[in-house]
Amino acid sequence: MTRSVIPLVVVALALCLPACLYTDVRAPLSYGSATPGDANGSLGKEVKGSACNVGILWLVAFGDGGYDAAVRDARAGTNAAFLVDVKADTTYKNVLLGAYQKQCTEITARIPGPTAAGPASSAGVAP
Predict the structure, then answer these.
(1) Of 18, 45, 56, 58, which shows the fewest CB atoms inside 10 Å?
(2) What is residue 113's DSSP assignment?
(3) 61 — phi, psi (to 5°)?
(4) pTM
(5) Residue 58, domain extent
(6) Is residue 122 domain-resident?
């Protein structure tokens, strides 16, 4: 009888482990952000980006929920070389005791604005 119970216990324990068949996820750790001073105090519009990891039925987990992926998402619609004043949040969604799990890194940032035109830029222009 013990020999028939052991495989059942092993299977039951395996089903309790999240993503026990496959896991390929990234999660944020830390990242240095440019300050408004790095953009000479000139800030442009606000942009948002997100990146997520998903786990399904405690068996499979996938995604790139890292900070870098969220920054790439925010920069996708801009031509900005870098983002300024980046703020990051992490959200979690669990359904049915983890049968479906979603972890997202969401960032809000500003793109550097255009630099103010000084008097030297108007040299040679007739009034």
Answers:
(1) 45
(2) P
(3) -135, 140
(4) 0.64
(5) 18-113
(6) no
Q: How far apart are CA 103 and CA 12, in angstroms?
A: 25
In a domain, 96, yes or no: yes
Report d(CA 111, CA 86) in Å as an integer. 10
Size (the chain), residues: 127
Does residue 13 belong to any structural domain of this protein? no
Give yes or no for a contact between 66 and 27, defined as CB atoms under 8 angstroms apart.
yes
List the structure tokens of 64: 């790139």
CA dihedral 45, 80, 68, 110 (to 10 degrees): -20
| Residues 72-101: tens digit of each pLDDT | 999 998 888 888 888 888 888 888 877 888
Nearest residue to 18 (alpha-carbon basis) of 44, 54, 65:
54
Token pair for 3: 């020999």
Burial group, residue 86, by CB count within 10 angstroms (0-12, 13-18, 19+): buried
In tens, the pLDDT along 4-52 reads 777 777 676 666 665 555 556 666 556 667 777 777 777 888 899 999 9
